[in-house]
Design goal:
Blueprint: E1 2-5, E2 8-14, E3 21-25, E4 28-33, E5 39-41, E6 54-56, E7 101-110, E8 115-125, E9 136-142, E10 151-156, E11 162-164, E12 172-174
Parallel strand pairs: 5-6, 11-12
Antiparallel strand pairs: 1-2, 2-3, 3-4, 4-5, 7-8, 8-9, 9-10, 10-11
Length: 202
């Protein structure tokens, strides 16, 4: 079954399967929505590695998503991740809690069987939230060799303190793996030298 544009018969809305709708232009399918409410662009069946409601796939650089903003101001386009503990969509009455994850970006690659994850950046509640008060931290995670579970490597907490290998209690805190010393290397340009500078803030 199809709903065809009059005078342009290769542009139409079709129903290729039960509870599924697709849109075609120029005789090619551009996107479809399946019975699970998954919207697919560039593919006709949902990726087995992902249950995401929006899936975009292509065999070249067109597997991109662009968010574009035009305006005579300094405001950028954005990706907006939101989390509520209320089970009703759009209901913000149930406050999130300390250590709740608010949103993340993950990177994965084919491992010969499915998708294994290599890295992740996550935004987390970092303290007790309240009205107009949402302390947060960023956690940067990578998977070790032989693993597909990203582990926290660096944290920027709600006070702006940075921890590498540890949760920071100071402005910058670095902790090496157990039994392994911490190493720092400073290397200057061949025409100059590396510096560590100390100042009293004046």
């Amino acid at each position: 079954e199809k709903v065809i544009h009059a005078g342009d018969t290769d542009t139409f809305v079709s129903f290729p399967a039960a509870d599924t709708v697709s849109v075609e232009t120029g005789g090619n399918e551009r996107f479809r929505v399946d019975s699970n409410g998954v919207m697919m662009v560039g593919l006709s069946s949902a990726l087995s590695s992902n249950n995401a409601k929006l899936q975009v796939a292509h065999t070249d650089g067109n597997a991109d998503i662009i968010v574009h903003r035009a305006g005579s101001n300094s405001s950028p386009p954005s990706l907006n991740f939101q989390k509520t503990r209320n089970a009703s969509i759009g209901n913000y009455s149930t406050i999130v809690q300390d250590n709740d994850e608010l949103g993340s970006i993950r990177w994965g690659g084919a491992d010969g069987t499915d998708i294994a994850f290599a890295a992740r950046i996550v935004g987390v509640v970092d303290g007790t939230p309240g009205a107009n008060d949402m302390p947060g931290r960023l956690e940067f995670k990578t998977s070790a060799d032989g693993s597909q579970t990203p582990t926290t490597r660096m944290i920027i907490n709600s006070s702006g303190k940075v921890g590498i290998g540890t949760s920071p209690g100071r402005d910058l805190e670095v902790k090496g793996p157990s039994g392994d010393p911490v190493h720092f290397k400073l290397e200057g340009d061949p025409s100059d030298y590396a510096r560590i500078m100390f100042a009293d803030g004046t």
